[in-house]
Amino acid sequence: MMDREIGVGARGWARVDGIDLLRGAAIFFVLMNHVNMQLLFRDVPYLVGLPLQLVYTLVWNGQLGVQMFFAVSGFLITSTSIRRWGSPDALKVREFYWLRFARIAPLMILLLVVLSGLDLFGVKHFVVERETGGLGRALVAALTFHVNYLEATRGYLPGSWDILWSLSVEEMFYLFFPLVARVLRKKGLLVGLLVLLMVAGPFARAKAFNPNPVWREYSYLGGMDAIAMGCLTAMLLAGRKVSRRMVWVCGSVGAALLVFCFGFSLEAYKIGLGKTGLLMTVVGVGACLVIAAAAMSGWRAPRVLAPVLQMGQRSYEIYLTHMFVVIGAFFLFDAGGKPLRAVWWVFAAVIVVATLLGWVVSVGFSEPMNRWLRRGERARFAPEAGSSLRSE
Fold this sequence. Notes:
The protein has 18 helices and two strands. The chain has helices at residues 17-41, 52-59, 62-85, 93-120, 134-143, 147-154, 159-162, 164-184, 187-205, 213-218, 220-237, 244-263, 265-270, 278-297, 306-313, 315-335, 343-374, 387-390; strands at 5-7, 241-243. Strands 1-2 form a two-stranded antiparallel ribbon.
């Protein structure tokens, strides 16, 4: 029974709980990190007495969470392309771009409109300073996917703008992905290029090769390696049958790597994984192994994990809107005199409210807009197999 084969391609790529749980965990760590940063800005000594590793695990893993997002994104985009067109090199470029536009653009444009209005009205925490180029420069950077470069060269943008750095990395990858896939044609050449991106990632993140601390975290190559890993995972699994034993091995090894990176990060830094940029590589590998196991097995999460699944299913909407919740929560926190006893309630409130806001935005705006745009005459595409892929 353990060795019975599972057909990956035959499953139709319906919603995969394991992937949604990864995204839910990723957005959880991002939220925890951003609340932590606000507390540090206010010199609130809420970490006194807590074990250092516990602190790092809970509130300093936002960047690792984004790395998991990148790996999931690469897998879903590539598996969708294979399901729709047969192989990456056969994809229709215009159709690919339109599908990405339908999913990403409506909420991103709405966010930029709201942020622009808040800047023009001079609302605190939302004004783009002249030193970083002002509102116009920030808009150009967001719309041309180089917020990461702007921040590395001119300084950080306000929090609700800063989060767009990861979208810059991701969408720059997908700007060239269909073109490169069509030009290279042969699968081996595309695989070779993706492997090169994987190799380049640690160098882009290593202090010895990149003295700019912001660019080490936000660079294109520093994030594209995880996207490339996700792409390769989808290409490797497409149409293959694997044994249950292999599923178990992938899931166990992947989970162990993620537990090590998130739960024993201090040890990881001691052995040099952080300094060399390899910690993020290990996170990407671990995430891809878990993704592979989840996709191959069709494992269903228990009901107790339903809140995490919901966070994962609405992760894009939560990510783009959560800073409004964070800023609002700290407006109340400051007004109340910054009580230390309320700190963990702030964490809990941000997670719950940000998730609810993401759900409302998803159901009420981004999903309807996605469906409406996809019904347009500018693209014809096959029916969707499942909401896990619709979300990408």
